[in-house]
Amino acid sequence: MKKIKLIIILIPFLCLSQQEKIKSLDINLTHYEYPFPVTFFEVSNQRQLLKMAYMDIKPENYNNKNIVLFHGKNFNGAYWETTIKALTKEGFRVIVPDQIGFGKSSKPDNFQYTFQQFAENTKKLLDHLGIQKTTILGHSMGGMLATRFTLMYPETAEKLVLENPIGLEDWKLVVPYQSLGSWYESELKQNYEAIKKYQMTNYYDGKWNANFQKWAELSAGWTTAPNYTIVAWNSALMYDMIFTQPVLYEFKNIKSPTLLIIGTRDKTALGKQLVPEEVRKTMGNYAKLGKKTKKAIPNSKLVEIPNTGHLPHIESFDEFIKPLIVFLNQ
User: Fold this and answer.
1) What is the pLDDT of residue 312?
2) 320: exposed, middle or buried (C-beta count within 10 Å: 0-12, 13-18, 19+)?
3) Which tens digit of pLDDT belongs to each residue from 203-226?
C-alpha cells in the first residue's frame, strides 16, 4: 500500500496582518463614499484657495430648524450618518462640514490651524447657504470648535450641544511641551494596530465591534497612501492647535442654551503617554469633567450616559439621540 504524502501550501495572503489588508485611501478620500451627496465650498485662507467639503441634507418635512455637526479630530463627516438620518426624520436640516485638513476637504501643506479659522470658514459656508440661525453640535475636537463658534457668533448659534468634547481640561499645564516635529514623527508611526489600540484604551475601555472597526479602518487607510506625510503633518499642526488654544476658560461667556452629552466611561486625554502614572490617572475622567463643565457653562444641562465611552452617537445611539431631539424641540 503506497503512502500518500500530504503537502500543505500556505497561501501568503492568509497570513497578512490587519494593516496589510487595509484599503489604501488618497488624502482627499476621493473614492470613499459618504452617506449623502458631498458639495465643495471654496474658502480663501492664508493666501490659499481651499475646498471645504460638506453635506447639506434638507428633509421634505423641514421644520425650519437647522443643526450643524462638527466632527472630531480622528474622524470626518461620514460618521454622523445615523445621526443625520434620525434628525432629518424629525424635520431638521443638517449641515455636516469636513473642516479644512479633514475628510474630503483640502489638505494644505503650509497652514496655521486655529479654531477661529475653522469657525470663520463655517460661518461663511452658512452665509452661503442662507442659514442665519442654527444649533451647533460638536463631538470631541469638534466640541472645542463648537464652543469657539458659539463665542464668536452668538447671534447664529441658537443652541450648543457638546458630545464628549475634548479640552475640558488644560493639558498644557501637566503635559511636557511637544514640538511640531515630535507630533509629526509620532503620526508617521500610525497604522491600524496603533489606531485600534489607542481607541480601545481611551474610547471603548477594551471593547471592540464592527462599528468601531469601520472608523479605525478609515483612519488607517490614509497611513498606507504614498503621500500620507501630508496628512501626518496636518495632524501634527492640529495637535499643536488643540494644546495651545484651550476654550474651557471661556465657558462662562457662553450665552446659548447648552446640552452636554457625556459618555462617562470615556478616558480620552491627549498626552497621557508623556506624563507619570500618578498624573495620567487624573486625566480624561469624563465622569467628573462633565459635572465640572456643567457648572462652568451658564444655562446648561448635563445628560450622562453610563457604560459609554468617547463616541455615544456610535456606541449608545438611542441614549444619545433621544435627549438631543428633546433639547432641539424645546
Assistant:
1) 97
2) buried
3) 888 888 888 898 899 999 999 888
Q: Is 97 strand, coil or helix?
A: strand
Supply the pLDDT for residue 23.
86
Nearest CA-CA partner of 158 in 131, 128, 182: 131
If one counts every other C-beta atom within 10 angstroms of the C-beta of residue 80, the result is 25
Radius of gyration over alpha carbons of the chain, in Å? 21
DSSP 307: T
DSSP 175: S
Q: For 242, which DSSP code?
A: H
Domain coordinates in residue numbering, the chain = 35-329
Residue with cell 462638527: 70
* Interval 56-74 mean pLDDT: 98
C-alpha cell at 61: 418635512
Position of cell 507619570? 276
Q: What is the number of other CB atoms lying within 10 angstroms of the CB of residue 197?
A: 11
pLDDT digit string, tens, across residues 299-322: 999 999 999 999 999 999 999 999
DSSP 3-state of 269: coil
Alpha carbons within 13 angstroms on the beta-carbon side of residue 27 total 16
CATH number for the segment(s) 35-329: 3.40.50.1820
SS3 content of the chain, % helix, strand, coil (to 5): 45, 15, 40
Mean pLDDT of the 193-198 span: 92
Q: Which residues, listed in sequence order, are joined to residue 54 by a DSSP beta bridge?
A: 39, 97
Tell me the DSSP string of 117-176.
HHHHHHHHHHHHHT---EEEEEETHHHHHHHHHHHH-TTTEEEEEEES-S-SS-GGGTSP
| Residue 135 near residue 66, CB atoms below 8 Å | yes
